[in-house]
Structure formats: C-alpha cells, structure tokens
Amino acid sequence: MTEPTRTLLITGASSGIGFATALAFCRRGWNVAAVARRADRLTALVEDGRGLSGNILPLTADVTDREAMRRAIEATVTHFGRLDALVANAGIGQRGAVVEAEWAHLDAVLRTNLDGVYHTIRAGVPALRQSGGGQIVIISSVLATLIAPYYATYAASKAFTASFAASLRMELEDDRIGVTEMRVGRTATEFNARRLGSTDNAPKQSHKLVPVMTPEFVAEGIVRAVERRSKVVYLRWFDRMLAWGGVIAPGVMGRFSRAQYR
Ligand SMILES: NC(=O)c1ccc[n+]([C@@H]2O[C@H](COP(=O)([O-])OP(=O)(O)OC[C@H]3O[C@@H](n4cnc5c(N)ncnc54)[C@H](OP(=O)(O)O)[C@@H]3O)[C@@H](O)[C@H]2O)c1
Predict the structure, then answer these.
(1) How confident is the model at residue 204 (pLDDT cuts 50, 70, 90)?
(2) How many domains does the chain have?
(3) 36 C-alpha vs ligand 1 centroid, how far in Å?
(4) pTM check: above 0.85
C-alpha cells in the first residue's frame, strides 16, 4: 500500500519564515495549507511553489479569529484529506516602553502571539488525531528566556509559548502528537519593519553584533524538527548561548538587549 501524501498547515505563510517553510515542505512532496491575511502574498507563494513535488492551498484567514481557523482546518482536510503537521508561526512584534505603549498595539501582540497559537492548535488537533498523530511546531524565540526591556510584551508572549508547548506535549503524547518549540534567533524577514509601536525601526548599531539567519535556513530547521519530532530546538550555538545567558545572568543580558531595543 502506498503511503498517503503528508499534509501540513502553516500560519504566517505570506512572508519570511512561514513563506520559506511552506516552500521547503512543498519541495519534499508535502501538501501545504498556507494561512495568512494577505491574499496577494499567498498567490505569490502558490506561483513559487509551481513545479515542486507538493501542492499549496492558499487560505486567507486571521489567526486571531477562532472560527476562521476552524474553517481553515476544515478546508485543509476537505482539500487534502488529512492533516499530519501544524506550524503555529504567525506572529508580530512590538517595541517601546510598556506604560507608554498604545494598548491597541499590546493587544494586537497578545491576540496574535497567544490567541492565534491557541486557535491554530485547538482547531488542528482533532484533524491530527484523525490521521493517527502528527507534529505541532510552535515558533517561539530566543527571547523566551532573555530579559528584553522595551520588548516586554513580545518577549513575554514567547515565554508563554515555551511554557505552553511543554505542557501541551504531555497532554498530547497519548495521541502520538509531538510538540516542537523552535527558539528562533534573529532572522532577515519583514518582522522588524512591521513591528508595532516603534517610530524608529532603523537597526541599532549594536544590532550588527547579532548574526542574522536567512528564513530558508530556519525553514530547513523546521523540516528537520518535524521529521525528528524534536522537542526544543535552537538553530545556532549563538542563540543557545543568548538564551542560557538570559537564565544565568539576566542582568547582564538585559543591559545587552537594552541597547538593541531602546
Ligand atoms: N525575524 C526574527 O528575527 C524572528 C526571531 C524569532 C522569532 N521570530 C518569529 O517567527 C515568526 C515568523 O516571523 P517572521 O520573522 O517570518 O516575520 P514576518 O515576515 O513579518 O512574517 C509574519 C507572518 O505572520 C503573519 N501574521 C501576522 N499576523 C497575523 C494574523 N493576525 N493572522 C494571520 N497571519 C498573521 C503575516 O501575514 P499577514 O500579515 O499576511 O497576515 C506573516 O506571514 C513569528 O512568530 C516571530 O515572532 C522571528
């Protein structure tokens, strides 16, 4: 009997890490349901995916909308017949002091980075169970354990996903569903230019100290994490050191981060 073609749903597929990851899976013959709000970018993704071994289904949806994510999963299973992996990647950043920040900006970060992860996973798990198991990948950040002044809400949202992933992994192990938490470091995407709350998105001088990954490099790491059913992933020793620095010497790391984000 031939194996069924595996299917992945990824959120935030219209740019950066999500765009590259959708193509990386498609290249390996996976069917990919690609979710984001910008339909034109998803059309460009489908164009880039033409000729690769898998197929891409563009799905315009907002991860903060629970019903829209339920419909996205339903459309995926109707179109491809199954779901084997889920990548909760959609996320936004915000910079600036907590007290002075506009509530609408902080609210958007919380709705996207927390509620969006909930809605993606709660909608997707029944479909993974129907396929007999699978893998969930949550895109977190090295900031999950790194004190970061002027990035407090974003860093806390990623600390949330780190804790959430660890609990979820235990809840889903009897369903043969693994949970990967990707602690991603600085990557060259639209993320910095699009983050909320900042009047000055120009890179700081100290930013030059932090090496930058390509989204394609991160995408290959996500493919490996799904194949190996990894638990917590750092893609570089630099990121691992930053994260551990945040645990061992939070004050020193906080001063380093301050120069980055202020
Ligand atoms: N870049 C970095 O340095 C870095 C480092 C660590 C972790 N990360 C994490 O990596 C993930 C991907 O970010 P990226 O760097 O690839 O940034 P990006 O290029 O800005 O991509 C963000 C993606 O999220 C989608 N998105 C945002 N809000 C959404 C919503 N409400 N509903 C649906 N989709 C939404 C965007 O699509 P639409 O606007 O079209 O909806 C876009 O496709 C994020 O979770 C981010 O926190 C990034």
Answers:
(1) low
(2) 1
(3) 9
(4) yes
